[in-house]
Amino acid sequence: MANPAPSRSGFAAGVVAALLAAVVMLALGPLAGVPVPLQLISDRLTILIPLDIFGAILGSLESQAKPLALAGVIIAQVLLGGVVAVLAARLARRGASPGVLFLGLTAATWAVLAFVVAPLGAIGIAGRDGSAGLWRTVLGFLVVALVFAGALVLGLEGTGGSGQEIDPARRRILRLAGFGVPAGLAVLVLGRFGLQMAERGQAAPGAASGQLPAPLTPTEDFYIVSKNFFDPSVSVPDWRLTIEGQVERPRSYTYEELRARPAMKRVTTLECISNPVGGNYISTGEWTGFPLRDLLAEAGLLPGVVDIVLHAADDYADSIPLVAALDPDTLLVYDLNGAPLPQAHGYPLRLIVPGIFGMKNVKWITRIEAVDHDFQGYWQERGWSDIATVQTMSRIDVPASNRTLVAGQPTLIAGIAFAGDRGISKVEVSTDDGETWAPATLDEPLSPLTWVLWRYEWTPIRPGRYHLVVRAYDGQGQVQDAKERPPLPDGATGYHTVSVRVGEA
Predict the structure, then answer these.
(1) How far apart are alpha carbons 420 and 282 in whole angstroms?
(2) How far is it, in rounded angstroms, from Cα 87 to Cα 84?
(3) ∠ at Cα 73 (75, 86), nearest 5°?
(4) Which of 14, 95, 138, 236 has the smallest C-beta neighbourhood within 10 Å, fewest atoms?
(5) For residues 77 and 22, is the Cβ–Cβ distance under 8 A?
(6) 10 Å Cβ neighbour count for 464?
(7) Which of 249, 363, 271 has the alpha carbon at shortest distance from 310?
(8) What pairs with residue 252 in β-bridges?
């Protein structure tokens, strides 16, 4: 009967090697601009998952979806690493030397990354920025392959997976160096990375938290959403904004040239299309920049242009219709709330387009392309809306959910309402689960493009359980959609409801 110990030892060595490779993958992305295989695989999986299942996952997990996706991809990589290690251990027991195993595993791993994983992201081995992208990709994948192969071979030596007899003292050293310490460090780094990713996905307080948001969201509280495991870090000295496609005069601009242009400020509310009813993925900021249409005019649009496509440093791309691009309130911005854009919000340049969900307000823009067709971007390929018009929404922030009130005492009910560039004309509140409605008082918005804060004073008469409901009307008098729908594909609809208990005076 075969001894299972070498197989178990080999599998363990492969697990550790795969964990270390995952750490290196995540490190090389922000440090060297190397395409991250874990990100490429995750991006491809979001296309393959059926739309209804994807929507259910997103609705259930919300901000935890991305960390769990990362964990799932890493687990699959770890299991694959274990299988590869078992096969390598068999070769070692048949006489293959550690050097031969190392070279063979390095070559095989690099080839899989370059010719199988990289094309999943449609980037090709050369990347998207010429020879520099080629060498970053080639060398980055080589580093990952070297780490995986080296850790695996060293782990096999240290855990006995190779089946070779070595000195017990040396084996203990190899086991510690090739298995114990790397495994602990890798789990620690990956766990910390996952927690940081989950924290980045959290939004500011709201949704019946008992706290009414400020009219202008502080930058540190501004919601953050992106597709990435890590966001790009753009080097401004090397950065250029390129205008190309169906234009008469393609050209590029430096960051300094763009900041030297006449500036304008707009206070605009931004909402994520994945924001659920009563959700927190909505914020208001003061943006500084200049109209996109000015650059398009300088480039000279050719006849037949349909969409303006925004390409980002993270290989993200989305488009807006030409009519939206030519709107004077559609800005390319470089400041948020009077300071340069934080890296997480698109530094050095992003788009702000009123009335359209945040996914089309592209961050980290590097290239603007005029095209003569309807361009389907990253999220459209995954089933999300191409039009992405903001749905009329309203939210109760005060009182807190399940708060106990006192009969006969006045209580403030308050929150926000938003309908994109259509504005808000009226907000109504119900204290009897939608049976009757009363008008709320609206604060003056900071601009026609922002949310409106609303308030209603209510004095409950009798003790009991009450369901508070809110609904808003846009600037055209159209009431928000009462039908409950999830965010996927066109943005969530339905009325926000908060339950409170009223006790005896």
Answers:
(1) 11
(2) 5
(3) 45
(4) 95
(5) yes
(6) 11
(7) 363
(8) 242
Q: How far apart are CA 485 and CA 332, in angstroms?
A: 32
Extract the tokens encoding 461.
Answer: 């008469």
Q: Report the C-alpha gap between 484 and 122 in whole angstroms.
A: 36
Give the residue from 381, 74, 333 showing the smallest Cα distance to 197: 74
Determine the Cα–Cα distance for residues 407 and 237; give it in Å rounded to an integer: 63
Give the pairing type, strands 365-371 and 331-336.
Answer: unpaired
206: left (phi over 0), alpha (psi -120 to 50) or beta: left
Distance CA 328, CA 484 (A): 34
Span 106-158, pLDDT tens digits? 999 999 988 888 777 655 554 444 444 677 778 888 999 999 998 888 878 76
CB of 275 closer than 8 Å to CB of 456: no
Residue holding tokens 């203990």? 172
CA separation for the pair 19, 177 (Å, rounded): 15
Residue 145, amino acid: A
Q: What does the DSSP 8-state code read for residue 131?
A: H
pTM: predicted TM-score of the whole model, two decimal places: 0.79
Full 3-state SS string of 457-477: EECCCCCEEEEEEEEEEECCC
- In angstroms, the CA 460 to CA 500 distance is 11
Both tokens of 84, joined, read 């590869």
**Contact status, residue 241 vs residue 367, Cβ threshold 8 Å:** yes
- Say which residue, 490 or 93, is predicted with more confidence: 490
Task: Answer whether the bond into residue 410 is a cis peptide, omega within 30°.
Answer: no
Residue pointed to by tokens 């959403």: 225
Tokens for 479? 């009431």
d(CA 460, CA 300): 62
